[in-house]
Amino acid sequence: MNTKLRLAILAPALVLTIAACSDKKTTDSGGLVAIEDRLVENNEIAGWTYLDAGWVANNISELTIHINGLAVVYERHGFVEAAHQSYQGTIDDGARTLQVTIYNQGTSPNAKATFDDPEVGLTGTTVWSDGAGEEAHFKLFGLSYALAFYRGPFFVYLDIGYGTEESLNVLKQFALNIDGKLQ
Hints:
The protein has 183 residues and is α+β, with helices and mostly antiparallel strands. It has a single domain (35-182), classed as Protein Transport Mog1p, Chain A (3-Layer(aba) Sandwich), CATH 3.40.1000. Helices cover 33% and strands 28% of the residues. It has 5 helices and 8 strands. Strands 1, 2, 3, 4, 5, 6, 7 and 8 form an 8-stranded antiparallel beta sheet that branches. Strand 3 and strand 4 (94-104) form a beta hairpin. The relative contact order is 0.14. Residues 2-29 have low confidence and may be disordered.
């Protein structure tokens, strides 16, 4: 077989192989999507990029390193694993930081119990009735917004250190993108 014909046959196969290998999604040995791959990807939402490397906690000891005293709340409700990422973007001509943490609580009832736990700090929140997850709430804390929801075994907590309508809309966009990855 001549070289041109061989290249014509192999090139499409090579393109398909490269495309399959370049997919960011990783899986565990059971073929499930890794928790960190449920986060919003770098620049997936235009103008919002990773601020740092993020973290993953695969047990309560690792979670305690990252969130210290609050880890007991998640442990009480069946904590399995978590992934966190900070993002940077611009709102109102200022640099803003947005944080996202996804907690796998093992079961939907555990995620709901986490969502309802007053120690998570979501008392007095506003219901986002047409939002992400099975239930979603948001709250303005001084000059910051927080938004939380759960879907299946996952409890998701997002916050941004800026309290405007635009920052709330950015949080909602992140929540909807993550929710799509949890379904």
